[in-house]
UniProtKB/TrEMBL annotation:
InterPro entries: HMA_dom, HMA_dom_sf. One of its GO terms (molecular function) is metal ion binding. Residues 32-98 form the HMA domain. It comes from the Bacteria. This is Mercuric ion binding protein. Transmembrane segments: none annotated. Residues 1-19 form the signal peptide.
Amino acid sequence: MKKILALALFGLTAVVPMAVGPAAAQSVATEHSVTFTVENMTCALCPVTVKRAMEGVEGVRAVEIDFAARTATVLFDTASTSAEAIAAASANAGYPALVEG
């Protein structure tokens, strides 16, 4: 939604569009990617459980699991969550996750 702001300066009138509403009030979100080591993944169901746990964290945009490498790469919004919160969600599901590097 846009509103019009009319300015009167020195007898001149200017019309300036202004953005208002939720989009104007939001802070700039920053996406960040982190790769976690998840050593406890030993069966075909383990990656599904880890992915669901991590995707359940608000702000997580995508989770890619590499079962062979025992890793999970997560893309998330840093304004909504943190790597620590994502690791905790995985640990709560029974799969402790450590940030690589």
